[in-house]
C-alpha cells in the first residue's frame, strides 16, 4: 500500500493572532491535521513594483492532496492579504503512522441528515 498523498502547505499572516485563528479554523474544519505556527519573521518582497518589508507569522499546514482544494478556498477567503502566499509541497517520505494520522484527521465528517420540521 502506498503512503497517503500528504502535503505541507506554507502561508504567512501579518499578525500572530490571525495566524492562531486561521490555524485553529483549519484544524477544526478538518482541512488540516496539524498547523505549526512559527516565530515571527522579517519578509522582504516586491509588490506592485516596490520593495516591501513586513513582519509576518509563518504557518506550516499538514493536509492531504484531496483536501487541498477546500483548504485553498478557505485560506483565500479568510486571509487578509489580496494575494496570500500559499505553497503546497508534496511529502515523498515520512513515518507511515504519522502520514496515516494526517490522512485520517482530514477526512471530512459526514453531514448529518436534515431533519424534517414537524408540521
Give a structural overview.
The chain is an alpha+beta fold and 119 residues long. The chain has a single domain, classed as Alpha-Beta Plaits (2-Layer Sandwich), CATH 3.30.70. It is built from three helices and five strands; from the N terminus they run βαβββαβα. It has helices spanning 16-28, 68-78, 96-105, and strands at 6-13, 34-37, 41-47, 50-64, 87-90. Strands 1, 2, 3, 4 and 5 form a five-stranded antiparallel sheet that branches. A hairpin with a 2-residue loop joins strand 3 and strand 4 (50-64). It is globular and about 60 Å long.
Any chance you could write out the topology, listing elements then pairs?
Elements: E1 6-13, H1 16-28, E2 34-37, E3 41-47, E4 50-64, H2 68-78, E5 87-90, H3 96-105
Antiparallel strand pairs: 1-4, 1-5, 2-4, 3-4
Can I get a quick summary?
The protein is built from three helices and five strands. The protein has 119 residues and is α+β, with helices and mostly antiparallel strands.
Distance between the termini: 51 Å
Give a short account of the largest sheet: 5 strands, antiparallel
| Number of discrete domains | 1
**CATH topology term:** Alpha-Beta Plaits
Rg, Cα atoms, Å: 17 Å
Mean pLDDT: 93
Task: Write the H/E string, N to C.
Answer: EHEEEHEH
Which stretches are poorly predicted, pLDDT < 50 over at least 5 residues? none
**Inertia-based shape:** globular
> What is the helix fraction of residues, given as a range?
25-40%
Q: State the secondary-structure class.
A: alpha+beta
What's the CATH first level? Alpha Beta
Number of helices: 3
Say how many strands there are: 5
Strand content: 25-35%
The CATH architecture assignment turns out to be 2-Layer Sandwich
Amino acid at each position: 500500500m502506498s503512503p497517503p498523498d500528504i502535503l505541507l502547505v506554507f502561508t504567512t499572516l501579518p499578525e500572530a493572532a490571525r495566524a492562531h485563528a486561521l490555524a485553529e479554523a483549519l484544524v477544526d474544519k478538518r482541512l488540516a491535521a496539524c498547523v505549526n505556527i512559527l516565530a515571527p519573521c522579517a519578509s522582504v518582497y516586491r509588490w506592485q513594483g516596490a520593495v516591501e518589508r513586513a513582519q509576518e507569522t509563518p504557518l506550516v499546514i499538514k493536509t492531504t492532496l484531496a483536501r487541498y482544494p477546500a483548504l485553498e478556498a478557505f485560506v483565500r477567503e479568510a486571509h487578509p492579504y489580496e494575494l496570500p502566499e500559499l505553497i503546497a509541497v508534496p511529502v515523498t517520505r515520512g513515518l507511515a503512522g504519522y502520514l496515516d494520522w494526517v490522512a485520517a484527521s482530514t477526512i471530512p465528517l459526514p453531514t448529518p441528515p436534515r431533519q424534517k420540521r414537524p408540521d
